[in-house]
Amino acid sequence: SKESGKNTYYIYSPSMNIQTYKTFNLEMGLRHALELNQFEFYYQPKVCAHTFQIIGAEALIRWNHPDWGLVSPGDFIPLAEETGLITEIERWVKFTACAQNKAWQRAGLPAIPISINLSAIRFMENNLADNIIKALEETKLDPKYLDVEITETSVLENEKAVISTLDKLKNIGVRVSLDDFGTGYSSLSYLKRFKGRIDTLKIDRSFIKDLNREDADNSNFITKTIIELAQHLQMKVVAEGVETQEQLQILQSYNCEMIQGYYFSKPVPADKFAQLLQKGKFE
Ligand code: C2E
Ligand code: CA
Ligand code: CA
Ligand code: CA
């Protein structure tokens, strides 16, 4: 039959709409992307707010498609999550980030932690920690040089399971950062329970974007409060999406420790990042 329901089309249906076709194409491509070696990391430095030294990096996935060019994660991670392909992709993510970091250390570059992003949906899976252990063993990377970024929303959902996963990660010795902080309706009491389990808070770009001397919409106040809260809980803070000198200066005055954003560098390919790391700091 051509149609099984009102809005259900099969792939050979002549009435298939463009969007369905695109999604289908995307999914087919995604299934082969790993074996065709089409994924690539771009690395963005995390910079000390005071010395401008590079003290970390975030590995951000790109899909290097032969026809479409560089596809950004926002355009394929959701589909990867829906189809379950994310599990395979994240195996690649864990292994590649560890292997690259180890290779840079072996080449004599400064040793820094590199962060990977893990999907909220899969975060509580049992084999998450196992896969991380495997990647660390295979690459011989010291666990303290791997940082796992998880989003605030993934942590809010099932606290008990999340805490047990976080404790496993702590046991292994990898670091954990809470990404997009401030967007997930978290309360102070909830954050308290993650004390000692989360090493770093990343203040979401939506607050940083609105930082300015006039502080018309309280973004300054909120940012300052998040920084003080993190310090109180002995967590480090990264400001994400810093683009201007004015934002940087405001963050320095609040004693924010780490800066990530276009002001210093966009995410860059591995060879370019190695050059930045070799220099060690920004002017
Ligand atoms: P995110 O983890 O919040 O990453 C930060 C995003 O902001 C990156 O976009 C980065 O390029 C961008 N960005 C950094 N500095 C600035 C700035 O100063 N201004 C502006 N306007 N943007 C800035 P990107 O690389 O497109 O990644 C988007 C999202 O995709 C990430 O958000 C993350 O949630 C997800 N993602 C990336 N890599 C992976 C991965 O390996 N696995 C999973 N599950 N998700 C990933
Ligand atoms: Ca992130
Ligand atoms: Ca983020
Ligand atoms: Ca964000």
Strand order of the largest sheet: 3-4-6-7-8-9-10-11
Stretches where pLDDT is under 50 for at least 5 consecutive residues are: 1-5
Please tally the β strands and state the result. 12
Bound ligands, each once: ligand C2E, calcium ion
Order of helices and strands: EEHEEEHHEHEHHEHEHHEHEEH
Return Rg in Å: 20 Å
Query: How many strands, what sense, and barrel or not for the largest sheet?
Result: 8 strands, mixed, barrel
Number of helices: 11
Portion in beta strands = 15-25%
Give the helix/strand class: alpha/beta
Q: What is the residue-mean pLDDT, rounded to a whole number?
A: 89
Helix content: 40-55%
Distance from first to last alpha carbon: 66 Å
Shape: globular
Protein name: Diguanylate cyclase
Domain EAL: 23-281
